[in-house]
Design a protein that fits this description.
By secondary structure, this protein is α/β, with parallel strands linked by helices. About 40% of the residues lie in helices and about 15% in strands. The strands form three sheets. Strands 1, 2, 3, 4, 5, 6, 7, 10, 12, 13, 14 and 15 form a twelve-stranded mixed β-sheet that branches. The chain has a two-stranded antiparallel ribbon with strand order 8-9. It starts with about 30 loop residues before the first strand and ends with a helix.
């Protein structure tokens, strides 16, 4: 144990074996985000937060952050990945973040070009951001930020904020978007929607948009550390949906996405870190920041999946969590009859904290509602991107004619002498045009071919 920096990893169960990362690369083929818990301490007390804010299990250094960055950068070939500072509140360690970026700036910059590669991000409540940090941080082309804010009305905020704090935060957000200029997509607002704050959702989105925000992530609150499981009233849920989609129709360049928790059945299970993991200063990681944060509690240490700094991974835990997840679809009638395009919403951390049964995976009254909302968001995003790209293609086609179409086909490795529609039919028929059967490459091809077909027709 390091006496100066007490790194406290979990101790495996007696007799439990482990593998090296290079022996199980398939477990990380879809990994797109790593959350680095710089600290568990926080400067806010959010009423719904499950995390503990008293104990850290080691401190990151610029060198250990670089170790994690190198591991993440090389673990797979995903075209876009997020190396995200997390907490607690990560800006309590602003000095460490700046030192890491300054020390490794050239390499961080070289690994992210034209919105492709590994970028640096952070999830923050934004209250510790000042003008100097805005200039430093967003002066780097590879940096993004996710600011967590649920409302600008302190009287309904569950996060124990003051009117002065929220007004300052609104001003900070506007300063960031002005600094970003033509790249507003580098800032994302994450909003936890409660029944209380959702009533002001329309006004909230309007203010964000007027401040220059163009990307929002929403997370409906159905599991609360203080109130347990929350079933929204039908009226409040429908009012929230109406306000959100009214805003989407009002602002053609606004994108609203869904937060974590929704994934394809049988594949995306956050307990095994399908596309996201969370690591603390000791190197321990799990599939959810809650479990990494709470690993000192009895029983939670068994949710740790491995240690990046020690090159250890507990494969038996992956198998156990995946088996438990799949069992849900076989034993619950609600799951057997549910077919929402093969998607499912589960939050094991919330389930374990709010269920007397202590069940990691289970259906409830809100899971299908959440999946439907997720699918509606996806459809809105797809339609906006589709017609945006049609307009982009149109301007280039008008300038370069058929040569432009040929160039697009060549870029995809397709024969320009074959009709665009024939290419589309061949790819889509082979894959039955179902999103879950399309590779990322084939999906991109079908998407762009569709825009060309509309253009040429």
């Amino acid at each position: 144990m390091d006496r100066k920096n007490k790194l406290i990893p979990i101790i495996p169960v007696s007799g439990e074996g482990y593998s090296r990362f290079d022996a199980v690369p398939h477990l990380f083929a879809d990994l797109a985000q790593i959350n680095l818990l710089l600290t568990n301490k926080c400067n806010l007390k959010c009423g719904y937060c499950y995390e503990q804010h008293k104990h850290d299990y080691g401190k990151f250094t610029p060198e250990s952050l670089k170790h994690a960055y190198d591991w993440f950068n090389k673990i797979n070939t995903k075209p876009k990945k997020s190396f995200q500072f997390f907490g607690g509140e990560p800006l309590l360690h602003k000095k460490l973040i700046k030192e890491f970026i300054e020390t490794y700036n050239d390499e961080l910059n070289s690994n992210y070009k034209n919105y492709s590669g590994t970028y640096i991000s952070m999830c923050t409540n934004g209250l510790l951001i000042d003008d100097e940090f805005i200039e430093f941080y967003f002066g780097k082309p590879y940096t993004h930020m996710l600011v967590s804010v649920d409302t600008f009305d302190a009287s309904i905020d569950i996060r124990d904020t003051s009117p002065e704090q929220l007004e300052k935060l609104a001003q900070t957000i506007e300063k960031i978007t002005k600094r970003l200029g033509s790249e507003p997509q580098r800032l994302v607002i994450r909003s936890t929607l409660s029944e209380e704050t959702a009533k002001e959702m329309g006004a909230f989105i309007n203010r964000l948009y007027s401040a220059g925000v163009r990307n929002i992530i929403v997370h409906p609150l159905v599991l609360d550390s203080g109130r347990g499981y929350i079933k929204w009233s039908d009226e409040n849920w429908e009012n929230m949906r109406r306000d959100v989609f009214d805003a989407l129709h009002k602002y053609p360049d606004l994108i609203i996405k869904f937060s974590e928790g929704v994934g394809l059945k049988g594949e995306n299970n956050c307990m095994v870190g399908s596309d996201m993991i969370a690591i603390d200063g000791s190197g321990d990681f799990s599939g959810c920041y809650f479990f990494t944060n709470m690993k000192g509690n009895s029983g939670v240490d068994s949710t740790v999946l491995g240690n990046i700094f020690q090159d250890k991974i507990y494969v038996s835990r992956y198998k156990r969590f995946q088996a438990e997840y799949n069992k849900m679809f076989e034993t619950h009638d609600q799951c057997k009859t549910c077919d929402l395009q093969n998607f499912c919403y589960q939050c094991p951390a919330g389930n374990l904290s709010t269920s007397d049964l202590k069940t990691m995976f289970r259906p409830d009254d809100m899971c299908q509602q959440i999946v439907k909302l997720f699918l509606d968001f996806q459809n809105d995003i797809y339609n906006k991107m589709f017609f945006r790209d049609v307009n982009i293609h149109l301007s280039r086609y008008q300038m370069n004619g058929q040569q432009y179409i040929n160039n697009v086909l060549n870029d995809f490795g397709l024969d320009p002498n074959v009709d665009v529609y024939d290419h589309y039919l061949k790819i889509s028929e082979q894959k039955n045009i179902k999103p879950e059967t399309l590779s990322e490459s084939d999906f991109s091809k079908c998407f762009y071919l569709q825009t060309l077909i509309l253009l040429l027709s």
